[in-house]
């Protein structure tokens, strides 16, 4: 079975690749590698989320499942006085994210290898961004949704991008069990971007 990107230590061979692209009008370069998500191009879902999300200046932001760093680096560019935390379970991905932060000139970042929120105890964020790891299974994806609710500031928002064929309708239903305000803010090429606010008082 081919090893997927949701692995702490990918065993697939290294094969670095360079991406040069523009997101939200920002020229960016990324070094990618084997064993990380969407190594050959910025995936459509992450691009759509980046172009849809709104982040206030000075915000504390979490890129949950950051991969090689697309969303976190865009967030760091649009809120230079904020702080962006980037986490991924994949050690190779976090190493690339750190390298790409340097390549793109962003210093207002903190990159950690973390299985979900395991290394973020007690931290809260104004904005959480995630293109969740669908291949890891529904249990992992739903844990991202529920655990995010526990790590949001009172007026914070979770932003999620997910493809219809990969479960956007069921994901929205699950999000509505956790958050009292779930807005479908963008749809394109089968992808949906949800903004989720106001978690219910009790989240399992």
Contiguous uncertain segments of 5+ residues = none
Q: Helix segment count?
A: 5
* SSE run: EEHEHEHEEHEHEE
Helix/strand class: alpha/beta
The number of domains: 1
Please tell me the overall pLDDT. Answer: 94
- The proportion of residues forming helix, as a percent range, comes to 25-40%
**Straight-line distance between termini:** 33 Å
**Order of strands across the widest beta sheet?**
5-4-3-6-7-9-8
Backbone CA Rg: 16 Å
Largest sheet: 7 strands, mixed
In CATH terms, what is the architecture?
3-Layer(aba) Sandwich
Going by CATH, the homologous superfamily would be Vaccinia Virus protein VP39
What is CATH's topology name? Rossmann fold
Inertia-based shape: globular
Record field, number of beta strands: 9
> CATH first level: which class?
Alpha Beta
What is the topology?
Elements: E1 17-23, E2 26-32, H1 44-52, E3 60-64, H2 70-78, E4 83-88, H3 91-103, E5 109-113, E6 125-130, H4 138-149, E7 152-163, H5 168-178, E8 179-188, E9 191-199
Parallel strand pairs: 3-4, 3-6, 4-5, 6-7
Antiparallel strand pairs: 1-2, 7-9, 8-9
Helix pairs in contact: 1-2, 4-5
């Amino acid at each position: 079975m081919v090893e997927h990107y949701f692995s702490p230590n990918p065993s697939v061979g290294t094969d670095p690749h360079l991406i040069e692209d523009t997101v939200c009008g920002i020229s960016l370069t990324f070094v990618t590698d084997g064993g990380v998500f969407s190594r050959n191009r910025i995936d459509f879902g992450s691009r759509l989320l980046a172009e849809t999300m709104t982040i206030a200046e000075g915000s504390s932001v979490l890129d949950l499942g950051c991969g090689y760093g697309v969303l976190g680096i865009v967030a760091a560019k649009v809120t230079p006085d904020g702080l962006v935390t980037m986490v991924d379970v994949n050690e190779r991905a976090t190493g690339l994210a750190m390298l790409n932060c340097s390549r793109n000139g962003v210093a207002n970042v903190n990159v950690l290898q973390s299985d979900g929120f395991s290394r973020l105890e007690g931290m809260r964020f104004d904005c959480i961004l995630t293109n969740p790891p669908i291949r890891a299974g529904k249990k992992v994806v739903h844990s991202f949704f529920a655990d995010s609710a526990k790590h949001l500031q009172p007026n914070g928002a979770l932003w999620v991008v997910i493809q219809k064929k990969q479960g956007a309708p069921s994901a929205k239903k699950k999000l509505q069990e956790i958050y009292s305000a779930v807005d479908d803010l963008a749809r394109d090429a089968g992808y949906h971007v949800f903004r989720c606010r106001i978690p219910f008082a009790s989240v399992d």
